[in-house]
Amino acid sequence: MLLFSVLILMGLSCKTNVSVLVPIDPCQSKPCKNGGVCEQHKESYTCHCPMPYTGTKCEKGKCCFHNTSCNRGDCLITLTPPYYQCSCRHPYKLPSSKSACSPSPCKNGGVCLRNRIRSKFTCQCPESFRGRYCETGPEDCYEQDGLKYRGKVSQTVQQKTCLHWNSHLLLGHSFNAFMEDAENHGLGSHNFCRNPDGDEKPWCFVHVNKKVKWDFCEVSSCSAVPDPTPSSSLLMPGTCGQPERVRTVQRIYGGSKAAAGKHPWQASLQNKVWFNLFMPRGHFCGGVLIEPCWVLTAAHCLGIAAPQMEVFLGKQHLGRRESHEQRFDVEKIIVHGRYEERHEIPYNDIALLKLKPIDGHCAVETKYVKTECLPDSAFPDGTECYISGWGATETGDESRQLLDARVKLISQTQCNTRRAYNNDVDENMLCAGNLQSRGADTCQGDSGGPLTCIKNGSYYIYGIVSWGDLCGLRFKPGVYTRVTRFLNWIRTVIKRESYSPR
């Protein structure tokens, strides 16, 4: 009996020892990264890191703790001494460089043009080449989802320069030049776009506002790239004011059906819910995409809160869901500080909508969605420009199909005559249409949409549909917000509120 009791006590003692004295091995979860060897210390562990890695989990590069600083550049990890090197971020150069163009950063025969600001430059690319450094040729495109893409594009759709895959900033990320099977994924000591995770197209990491994000790259699908023959112009992804289909625009009010892809910057502002008979659910104003996360529109359109709005890009028909449309919630509404209405006339009638990103990015450039350029100078009176929208037509009903029309810019003097608007049009407005006869015009539902003018093959947002007496009447042309008067405000707001891709 005594022996039996002793055995029981010994057994209890053994069970207690198992739970207290033999803890779970902390190295089982493989906490050490980049080939680090895990050594257990009772309930803790130590990572022994191979060169050039350091940190508690070998997640950092040696250069992070070096006295050497890359200043505005990026510190790249190398596997040979001194285990790091500096990569200069555009437009900065190594100390030995005398200027932005010495030596020339332009590739494939591109000519480096210096800017007045000494650190800046532009590469004038030979025909068929594109990119900041003329690094992208006509054959540089991706098949299917770009899993096997091995081209040299290193810029995102939002014009950000890609990080090198061996950047010290990526050591804690799943995809870098030192990951398992990196070579088979095309990753290495470069910053070219790749698709190691089988996403829909090539992408890369970028460093903005002290954060590492990712974004899709400015590279075209091979099936979408036309042959660069002398008689055709190669549309460049990422450039503004380049519609997919450039055709003669026919005669909105007195207008005709717009071809898909002809106004890829056109936006539809819509109510998410039914407010009342005057503000039903659906389209209520137009807008124009000027940057991936920014839509320009008229201030008088915005009588509702941002959470109650949604913006559609790439739409042609309001009455059906289209495969190529892109929908966004509105993160913020920014109305011009001097906007006001006097005698039913809106002054400084301009506003910006900041779109809420989806999966880290806003508008993605496609055949049906592109940005329109901001103008850099005035267009002369008499210039033929174009309007587009879903507003009221001659029948009095709003169109479900996107329409467009041609109008001519009218001088301020003519527009302010007694028969016209009798000095109600100030310097921040402009008129377009036809004074002498009834004709094409914008109307209700077109407000906030673009008045587009062309220069050197690029389309510029020159006016925003604002107001007018009825629609299409003699001596009563459409009145538009003159965008050139608000360029500083637009750029200041976007810079202040800028969103960085993920």
Descriptive report:
The structure is a single chain. The protein has 502 residues and is mainly beta. The chain contains three helices and 25 strands. A six-stranded antiparallel β-barrel has the order 20-21-22-25-24-23. The radius of gyration is 30 Å and the shape is elongated. The N and C termini lie far apart (72 Å).
Give a brief outline of the structure.
The protein is mainly β and 502 residues long. The chain contains 3 helices and 25 strands.
Sheet with the most strands: spatial strand order = 20-21-22-25-24-23
Total number of helices: 3
- How far do the termini sit from each other? 72 Å
Secondary structural class: mainly beta
Mean pLDDT value: 78
Q: What is the global morphology?
A: elongated
Total beta strand runs:
25
Report low-confidence residues grouped into runs of 5 or more.
Answer: 1-23, 225-237, 245-257
Let me know the largest β-sheet.
Answer: 6 strands, antiparallel, barrel
The helical percent reads under 10%
Strand content: 25-35%
Radius of gyration from the alpha-carbon trace, in angstroms = 30 Å
Q: What's the order of the H and E elements?
A: HEEEEEEEEEEEEEEEEEEEEEHEEEEH
